[in-house]
Recover the amino acids of this structure.
DNA sequence: AACAGTCTCATACTAAAGTACCAAATCTAT
DNA sequence: ATAGATTTGGTACTTTAGTATGAGACTGTT
């Protein structure tokens, strides 16, 4: 967790910088104490929100599809489309109708998907695809 | 977004309260300006983190299984177990081996699961189960 | 233009999934 | 203890899924 140390170090620095700035402003009389404190409060609130967001993103399984993984596996555009339809629970015949091609074509694509994902069944392919983060949701 | 308005109202109030408190402390000379500002910064940082956490939680699809849904659907304990195995990508034969029963039994269970989830195929059953939040992940 | 890759489709299989129907054993709660 | 639900298992059958193989059409690339 180097990032944690880094972030808290930066925060400490930010606080020190603000202290310097605020005391200087107060001495010079440009700003009122209320204004400075409000600004600091808002600033640190925003920083808190931002940092929490960053941390959350790392912990949560991203719902985004990992395009790099798709390329790494070697799935073609059409094969990936078929995979998505499979994962949605459609049969080969239904996928064929939805994509306006023959069932034979879908079978070919499915076989290729299974090969590339090293799966014996479509359900296993779906599971593996999920683990590889190449499926939305 | 009533919550948003509420939260920001509370924040504004908190800032005002802090201003009052800090000016009072400064006048009475109990605290230094640095100490007050640091405290406020830390406080608002924490508030920011907390609020972001709250908001995030609402957006994320809960990974918990919805036991009520399982009951509502009428899935028995064993049927649910089979559903989980199905969703993991196992074949009927594999599930039979894993649960130490015959393949016939699994077929019966699977048929019942499909009926209760109103699905034509196991992939569709998995998809529907996912939507009903009765699958972990 | 030639080539690799993709997409399409077909045939002929084998394997797996799913349905229908039945029935015995086992729990479970009243 | 008995009724109702659950679990288990079987047979026989239909439907999907998946494999193997081949091949034409259509990219984009060098």
């Amino acid at each position: 967790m180097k990032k944690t140390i880094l972030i808290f170090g930066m925060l400490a620095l930010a606080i020190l910088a603000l202290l310097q700035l605020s005391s200087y402003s107060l001495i010079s009389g440009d700003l009122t104490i209320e204004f400075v404190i409000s600004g600091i409060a808002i600033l640190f609130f925003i920083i808190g929100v931002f940092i929490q967001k960053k941390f959350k993103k790392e912990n949560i399984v991203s719902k985004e599809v990992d395009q790099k993984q798709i390329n790494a596996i070697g799935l073609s555009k059409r094969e990936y489309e078929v995979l998505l339809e499979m994962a949605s629970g459609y049969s080969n015949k239904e996928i064929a109708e939805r994509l306006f091609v023959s069932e034979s074509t879908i079978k070919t694509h499915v076989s290729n998907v299974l090969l590339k994902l090293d799966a014996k069944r479509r359900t296993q392919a779906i599971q593996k695809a999920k683990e590889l983060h190449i499926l939305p949701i």
